[in-house]
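Q: What residues go here?
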C-alpha cells in the first residue's frame, strides 16, 4: 500500500499543476475565436493610442507631435454614436454610360458637428469598369444656432449633404445592381467646447440598378378663371327719332290684335337678330301712335262708332 502511494503522488502533483494552465489556454483561444473580425485590431490601436497619450503626460514622444500628426496617429473607424451616412442615387436607375448624382447625407448625432469649410476627403473603392465617381461637392453650411461653440459661424449641425457625380459603366448588364463603395475621412468636433473629438474613416455603400428610369412629368391642374364677356361695340349710328325700349310698341299678344310692322333702313343692324325688310310696304311713313301705343286711326274710328250709336239712341227717343 505504501509503495503504490509513493508511485502515484508525483503524477497527481503534475496533473494538478498542468491542468489549470491548459484550461485557461483553451478558454482564451475560445474567447478570441468568438470575437468578430477586426475587433482585436481596433483594440490594439486603441491600446496604442492610450499608451501614446500616457506618454504625453510624461513628456514622451507623443508630446512632440503636432495636432495634425496626433489625429493621423489615432484615426478610428466606425463613427458610431457620432455620425452615420445614408446614400441614394438620383435617378435611382442608370443605363450603361448614363450619368447621375449620388447624394450622401451625413446625419450628426449628439453634440457632434462638422465645421465649415468641410474638411473631408473621399477615396473610391469601386472596381474598374463598374461605376465611376467624380469629385465630391458639399452643400453650403448654415450659421450655427444650436451648437454653443459655433453660434453665428458656418457649421454643419444636424446634417451635411454631399453631391458626388456618378457614371454607370458601359459594360454593365441591364437589370443588375452595381455596388458603390467609398471611404470618407473627416474630423468630428464637439459643438459645445469646439474641440476636436477625433478623426474617423467611414465606409459608405449603396447599389445602383442598371436600367431605364421612366419619370413622367406631372402637370399641375389650375382652376379655370372666370372670363368677363367683352362689351359689344356697335359702329352703326341710330336714326333720328329712334325710340328706346320703354317707348317701343308692345307685342301683339299684349294688344290682342295684329302686330304693327316697323320698317328698318337697310344700313341699320341690330345686335341680337337681323330684321328683314317688310314686303309690299313701299316708302310709306310709319304709322303714328299715341303715348299708350294704340294706332291713331283706331282711336278715331272707335270715337266715330260711339258717336253714331249715341245719335241713334237719341233719335229713338
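A:
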Amino acid at each position: 500500500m505504501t509503495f503504490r502511494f509513493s508511485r502515484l503522488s508525483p503524477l497527481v502533483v503534475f496533473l494538478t499543476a498542468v491542468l489549470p494552465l491548459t484550461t485557461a489556454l483553451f478558454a482564451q483561444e475560445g474567447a478570441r475565436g468568438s470575437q468578430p473580425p477586426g475587433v482585436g485590431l481596433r483594440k490594439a490601436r486603441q491600446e496604442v493610442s492610450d499608451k501614446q497619450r500616457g506618454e504625453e503626460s510624461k513628456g514622451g514622444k507623443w508630446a512632440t507631435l503636432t495636432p495634425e500628426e496626433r489625429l493621423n496617429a489615432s484615426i478610428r473607424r466606425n463613427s458610431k454614436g457620432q455620425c452615420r451616412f445614408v446614400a441614394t442615387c438620383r435617378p435611382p436607375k442608370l443605363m450603361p454610360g448614363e450619368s447621375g448624382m449620388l447624394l450622401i447625407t451625413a446625419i450628426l448625432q449628439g453634440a457632434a458637428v462638422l465645421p465649415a469649410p468641410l474638411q473631408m476627403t473621399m477615396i473610391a473603392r469601386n472596381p474598374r469598369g463598374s461605376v465611376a465617381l467624380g469629385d465630391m461637392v458639399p452643400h453650403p453650411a448654415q450659421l450655427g444656432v444650436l451648437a454653443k461653440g459655433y453660434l453665428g459661424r458656418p457649421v454643419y449641425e444636424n446634417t451635411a449633404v454631399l453631391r458626388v457625380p456618378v457614371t454607370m459603366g458601359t459594360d454593365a448588364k441591364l437589370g443588375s445592381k452595381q455596388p458603390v463603395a467609398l471611404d470618407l475621412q473627416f474630423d468630428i468636433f464637439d459643438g459645445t467646447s469646439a474641440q476636436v473629438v477625433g478623426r474617423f474613416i467611414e465606409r459608405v455603400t449603396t447599389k445602383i440598378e442598371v436600367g431605364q428610369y421612366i419619370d413622367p412629368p406631372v402637370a399641375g391642374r389650375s382652376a379655370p378663371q372666370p372670363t368677363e364677356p367683352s362689351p359689344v361695340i356697335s359702329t352703326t349710328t341710330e336714326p333720328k327719332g329712334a325710340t328706346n325700349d320703354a317707348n317701343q310698341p308692345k307685342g301683339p299678344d299684349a294688344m290682342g290684335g295684329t302686330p304693327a310692322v316697323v320698317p328698318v333702313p337697310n344700313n341699320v343692324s341690330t345686335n341680337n337678330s337681323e330684321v328683314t325688310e317688310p314686303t309690299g310696304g313701299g316708302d310709306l311713313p310709319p304709322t303714328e301712335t299715341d303715348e299708350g301705343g294704340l294706332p291713331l286711326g283706331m282711336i278715331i274710328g272707335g270715337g266715330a262708332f260711339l258717336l253714331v250709336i249715341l245719335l241713334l239712341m237719341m233719335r229713338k227717343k
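A: Context that may help when evaluating the design: The chain has five helices and 13 strands. The first helix runs from residue 2 to 34.
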